[in-house]
C-alpha cells in the first residue's frame, strides 16, 4: 500500500485482496490501535504493583515514565507494523524541540488565562505549600494524561477519523469525545464537558495537524495540567490536589469555572479557542488539511 501525504492517508493498491483492504480500513485500524494501547497501558501499570511507590515520592514519577514509555513504544510498533505508514507520529526527529515548544505554549497560555481571572478578582493565591507535592502532579496530572490521552485521542481517534471523513469531522468527533470523557469527572457535567470539547479539542487537534506528530500536543497537554494544578493550585478538570500554593477561586462560575476549575470558565473558553483557531489557520496555510475519502475518490 502506498501513502499519499504527511497525514499518512493511504492510496488504494489494487494488488491486495478484500481481506487486506478490510484490515487496512481506517475504522479497523482505529479499533486495533486502541486495543493495543489499552493492553500496553494495562501491562505497564503492573510495574506499580512491584514498586508500590508513595504518591509524594520520585518513585511514582519513575513508574509513570516507564508506563508512558511502554505506551509510546506500543504506538510506534503499531505505526510501523500494523498501519505501516511511512509517517510515524512518534518518530524521534524533532521530539525534544516540539515537546519543549508545546510545554512553553501550554504554560504561557494557562498562565495568561489565570492572570486575567486574577485581575478580575476570581483567583486568590494563598500560602506557599512547598515543593513536595510536585511528584504526584508531574506523574498523574501532567505526564500520564499528556502522553496516554494524546495517543488515544489525537494519535488514533483523530488520525483515523480524518482518513475516513477529513480534518473537519475529525476535529469535531475527537473534540466531542474528549469533552465527553471529562463529563463524569468530579464536579463535571454538561458545561465543563462542552468547554473541554471546544477549547482543548480544537487546540490540541490543531497542534497535531500543524506538526503531524504527537510531541507538541503532549507538551501542551502536560504543561496545561501542570501549570493549573501545581503552579497555581487550581483544580485540574474538577480534581483538586495540593499544589505549590493553596489558592482559591471565588466569583461567578462563568469567570472561575466553579468547582471544576478554570478550564470551564469563559476566559479559558475564549482564549484557548482563539489560540486553537490561530493554529488551525497556520495548519491550513501549510496544507495540513485532509479531504474526506469520498472527496478524494
In short:
With 297 residues, the protein is mainly α. 66% of the residues lie in helices and 3% in strands. It has 11 helices and 4 strands.
Task: Show unreliable segments.
Answer: none
How much helicity do the residues have?
55-70%
Number of strands: 4
Distance between the termini: 16 Å
Please state the CA-atom Rg, rounded to the nearest Å: 20 Å
Topology as a string of helices (H) and strands (E): EEHHHHEHHHHEHHH
Average pLDDT confidence is: 90
* Main sheet: strand order: 1-2
- Oligomeric grouping of the chains: single chain
Write up this protein.
By secondary structure, the protein is mainly α. The chain has eleven helices and four strands, in the order E-E-H-H-H-H-E-H-H-H-H-E-H-H-H. It has helices spanning 18-23, 26-51, 58-83, 95-119, 134-165, 167-180, 190-211, 215-231, 253-256, 266-285, 293-296, and strands at residues 2-3, 10-11, 123-124, 248-249. The chain has a two-stranded antiparallel sheet with strand order 1-2. It is globular and about 65 Å long.
Helix-strand layout with pairing:
Layout: E1 2-3, E2 10-11, H1 18-23, H2 26-51, H3 58-83, H4 95-119, E3 123-124, H5 134-165, H6 167-180, H7 190-211, H8 215-231, E4 248-249, H9 253-256, H10 266-285, H11 293-296
Antiparallel strand pairs: 1-2, 3-4
Helix pairs in contact: 2-3, 2-5, 3-5, 4-8, 4-10, 5-6, 5-8, 6-7, 7-8, 7-10
